[in-house]
């Protein structure tokens, strides 16, 4: 099962990183276009250091990577980790849908056959 694809600590880091609105927005922005931390910081009403900390959380979760280009650190998405997270959530969805289907089957009224 996909849920077992990630170690429990990896899942914790992934959900912790995505629990914050700014971090989710950073992931979306770097998927659209890799950006320097400076460019990212200009898009938020917070300090450069605060954005840098958000990026560090995303890096620890494996959702983004930083690559040095000259004096800038470019932030790029790690598409494989994002895909693994999506598969994890689909796995949870499949578990839930299976559970709902079993409850529906239990609650369905019994079929009665017509008597000839």
Automatic annotation (TrEMBL):
**Superkingdom, taxonomy of origin:** Bacteria
- A GO term for molecular function: DNA-binding transcription factor activity
InterPro entries per the UniProt record, alphabetical: ArsR-like_HTH, HTH_ArsR_DNA-bd_dom, WH-like_DNA-bd_sf, WH_DNA-bd_sf
The HTH arsR-type domain covers which part of the protein? 3-97
Recorded hits in Pfam families, A to Z, give: HTH_20 (PF12840)
Which residue ranges does UniProt annotate as crossing the membrane? none
What is this protein identified as?
Answer: ArsR family transcriptional regulator
Phylogenetic classification of the source organism: Bacteria, Bacillati, Actinomycetota, Actinomycetes, Mycobacteriales
């Amino acid at each position: 099962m996909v849920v077992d694809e990630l170690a429990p600590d990896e899942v914790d880091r992934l959900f912790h990183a995505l629990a914050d609105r700014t971090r989710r927005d950073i992931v979306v922005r770097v998927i659209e276009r890799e950006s320097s931390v400076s460019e990212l910081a200009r898009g938020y009403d917070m300090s450069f250091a605060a954005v840098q900390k958000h990026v560090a959380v995303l890096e620890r979760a494996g959702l983004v990577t930083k690559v040095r280009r000259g004096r800038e650190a470019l932030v790029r998405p790690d598409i494989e980790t994002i895909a693994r997270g999506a598969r994890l959530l689909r796995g949870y969805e499949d578990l839930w849908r299976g559970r709902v289907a079993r409850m529906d089957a239990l609650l369905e009224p019994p079929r009665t056959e017509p008597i000839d």
